[in-house]
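Recap from last week: sequence in, structure out.
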Amino acid sequence: MRTTRQRAWVLTSGCAILFILMSAARGDAAVRQIVLLQSFERGSLVVDRLTALIRTMVNERSAEPVTFTEFVVSPAGFRDIPEDAVIEFLASAYAGRPKPDLVITSGGPAADFARRHRSRLFADSPLLYAAVDARFLQSGILTDNEAAVAVANNPTLIFEDILRLFPDTANVFVVMGSGELGQFWRREFERESGRFAGRLRFLWADGMSYAQILQRASTLPPRSAIFFASLDVDAQGTTYPTERVLTDLRARANAPLFGAQSAELGSGLIGGTLMSIETASERTADAALRILAGTSPALIKLPIQQPGPPIFDWRELRRWRVSENRLPPGSVVRFRGPSLWRDYRREMLGVLGAIVVQALLIVGLLYQRRARQRAELESRRNLSLAADANRRMTMSALTGSIAHELSQPLNSILHNVKAGEMMMGTANGASPDVLREILADIRTADVRATEIIERHRTMLRHRQLDTKPIDIHAVVRESVALVASDTKERQIHIDVDLPAFPCIVTGDQVLLQQVLVNLMMNAMDAMADTPAGRRRITVRNAIIAPGRVEIAVTDRGSGLQSPSEGKLFDPFVTTKSNGMGIGLTIARTIIEAHLGKIDARNNPSGGATFAVTLPCIEATEHV
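Predicted structure tokens:
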């Protein structure tokens, strides 16, 4: 392993020399030079993360170009360190060249190396100790050309986190290396773990090979936890990358795995009150930039960084069934699985708000629809009642004509009966043929009377709107028949102009008859002062557009009065001295219920025309 480390060190050093020569060849005097002395070879999550962040932050924030040159000054474990060779190499690399503008150490071993060889190692360059443990500062005094970004590594906080998350824990397996660094930390942990005497039993991994460490982690007794401190080198002198160690421990361990550094979170640690490497890197970058800007290192006095805040891996919490309610106050949970509510809370609240508003609108619309349906039903009921009342008024006005119309068939029946009785009283009697003729006349008169009574009874019957396909021409003919007797009595002639083919509309025959009878009765009333010879009503049906039929009732009366023409169909508007003003209102309501319209206009030659327009099926389809 020593040969391997030496080869790695030589390779790293060669790359560093090449980089220095390339930088010098540029001849760019404005480039600031920083030498970064790193404690371990590549593979330490903490040191690699620390140095990478320092480089990035300094380059991003510096107003001048900065070149970093990294050297690994201490192979893992402090074992067989070729310190003189390292010092001689660094001195020869910068011989005859400008000294570095700043030297930064990363981690404790590099800091110890720089302090012990300060007089031989860039003695005139400012020195910044990055992420060095506070214990290091207690063992020596910083010179005026030195500054430190110190951290307080405190394993006690991790042991308290273990007991908080797993209160029944009795054993803690501490994973650390067998080199000088591991021995140093074991002494520190043993000193600080005394407060847990009687509560926790500590098992130490130093003196074990890597395979033995993994085997021990997989066979721990119940109520155990694992604390990973570091593994610089195992008992066999072999080094392992931190990420591999944590991955193997997680796969083999039968207990939850804890650590002390934030850079290791996400590799198997459950979490805890960890030292934030991100914060240490930022503080180091700020101090480095101040020194590069001309501030004396002696003036840079930074407080010691404490661990925290507590951070945890959500995946490991779930694995070990730890409720987030047991975490310390202010804890940060990372690596959560996707959550629609957590990740898109604002959007979800917006969507839920929109859904609630939409639901309220739908409920409101449904309520309005139901209210409208109730209103429509009530309107239809009121229409039916009003129409019934109007029909009764109309039929009451036609009472005289009804009696006159019925008197004809009844008188015919009476005369035929008397004629039969007279013939039966003669000596010869009535022949069968004559009796058959008399009976046929009686039957005809009876049918005529029955038709008259049924027609008027239908008009008087209470009914709801009942639409079905009907021939509007037949409706006109029936309506004319209803007022025929009254027109004779008033000496009014009715002209009916109907096409030869039927015209089918969807409607209620009785209600449409009521409208037409009402219009014809109004026409007759309008001609009360018209000379008898000019009293004429014309009823005309015509297809005025595809799917539209017009029924026009024209009279030769006095016409419409201009003031009332626009309000003719409003309730209680009438030009009759004995009228109520609801007939035309009911007529308009009936026509609108049939999706039609009704209007009135004066004729150029005198009189008025009331026109009803209804939707119809193409008349030619029924020819």
